[in-house]
Amino acid sequence: MKQAIKAVIFDMDGLLLDTEKVYFKGYQNARTAMGLAPYDAGFMELIGLPIPAGRPLLEAHLGAATDAFEAQWEHEIRQLMTARIPAKPGVRRLMTQLQDQQIPYAIATSTFTSKAHDHLERAGLGDLFDTIIGGDQVQNGKPAPDIYLKAASTLKIDPRLCAAFEDSENGVRAAVAAGMTTVQIPDIKPPSDDLRKLGHHIADTLLEGARHLQLNET
Fold this sequence. Notes:
The protein has helices spanning 20-33, 40-46, 51-62, 66-80, 91-100, 113-122, 146-155, 169-177, 193-196, 206-212; strands at 7-10, 105-108, 132-133, 162-166, 181-184, 201-202. The mean pLDDT is 91. It has a six-stranded parallel β-sheet with strand order 3-2-1-4-5-6, with helices on both faces. α1 (20-33) packs across α4 (66-80). By secondary structure, the protein is an alpha/beta fold. The protein has ten helices and six strands. Helices cover 45% and strands 10% of the residues.
């Protein structure tokens, strides 16, 4: 298994950065601020989607209030993320181990590239990632495979020789469609029975997932 993996591609939000909980809290706060009833399922539908793909889902629930809600949601997120953004456990350790083994890696995130750079810097991880493919760099976002294929192309590695780490359903579907060995580290939404049928690996932590693929030492 170890010899087959020539590169590793990571999602960002909910996998490397503990931001999905922040986005969820901001979503809830925005609904409260606008006098809207709780609708947590609406947020769950958006996980892993690029902003343009998620907007029609918001419009289906909010109609003409969508613009105002998006502005309020962004405001709430900024309020919650004024300081350091928390990183998930094991990120720096895993990247150091990959560097020691000379295994290239990249980020493939639905977040726009400039914002991804900013969030990584504020998480204290900006020095670890040279290759970041953001959602603004591809025409079709997750669950389409485009962003993973672009990341593999940028690294000059056959997608079939890449491992992909994801937390969301849409991200898993994108990575599997790209032909990558896929590991899911679920965050706030557990994998559905339908998703499990894809046959990908599921682990509790990044380091556990890496051990499963023999990508780290311990």
